[in-house]
Design a protein that fits this description.
It is a single chain. The chain has 6 helices and 14 strands. The radius of gyration is 20 Å and the shape is globular. 33% of the residues are buried.
Length: 294
Amino acid sequence: MTVSAVVRLRLGPPGSPAPWSRARDLCARGKVSLDGAPALDGAARVRGGQTLVIDEHARAPRPPTAAKIVFEDAHVVVIDKPAGISSVPFEEGETGTAMDSVRDAWRHEGRRSDARPLLVVHRIDKETSGLLAFAKSGRAERELKELFAAHDIERTYLCVAHGRLSSRSIESMLVDDRGDGLRGSTRRPGTGKRALTHVGVLETLPKATLCEVRLETGRTHQIRIHLSEAGHPVVGERVYVRDFSGGDYELLASSRLLLHAATLGFVHPVTRASVRLSSPLPEDFLAELARLRA
C-alpha cells in the first residue's frame, strides 16, 4: 500500500477514506513521516513494520541544500548537486533547479547571472546527488556533448543495492517504454540503445551491498534499470520496483535514493587539460549507510 493510501484510510471515517488530493498534499508539505523521515512522495510503498505518522502541525522540511560549485572557468562549470533538485527545469515555471543554484551563486558573488549563458550538456536524476557539468560557451557545449555522446567521459557512481551483489558487467538494449510506460531492457531485434554498466563491490552490508559503478554508456536511468533488472534495485528506488519480487529480502526503507555521482573526468573542451573531479558522499547518504551497516 502507498503512503497516500494509508493516509487516506487514517484520516477518513471507516468506509469513507479522505480524498486523494488531501493525502498527497499532506505528504508534499512534510506532514507525514515514515520511520521518522518525511514521506514527501505519496506514491512510496509502506512496508511491513514501518511506522507512519501524520502530524498536521509538523514544520515543513527545509528545502534541499543549494548546489556547490566545485570547478569553474570561462567555459565550464561543474557543481555538486544534492539529491532532491532537478538538473534542469522539466516543467514551465519550475524553480529551485541546479541551474538556478549556479545563477544564485553568481549573484551572491556579485556577478550578473543573466549576462552569461548556462548550457546543458548532460543530466543526473533529481533523486541522485553528485557531480553535474554545464557549459558556458557555445564551443564548450558542442565539444562536451560530443565527449558524452562518444562516451569519452569518466563517470563513477557510488550506490547501495539490495541484497548480496557480486561484481559484474551488465549489458542490454534500453528502450523508453518496455510496454508498461517504464524504461527498460528489450530483446526485440533492431530496437533500443546499447547500455553497459560495470559494477564493483566495495562493501557487503547485512542486507545490501555498497557498490562502485562505472558507466561505459550514459542512458537515462541506466544504473537504476540495470540493477533492478538484475534483482538488486538501488535502495530508495521507487520507480523500477513496481513488479519487484525480492525473494529472500524485502525492500529497505530510505529517505533518499542511495545513488551518488562521485567522479567526473574529461578533457577540457578548450584548454585540453585533463579535468578530474570527485565528490564525497553527502551527509544524508552517509546517515542511511550507517543505518544499513548496523
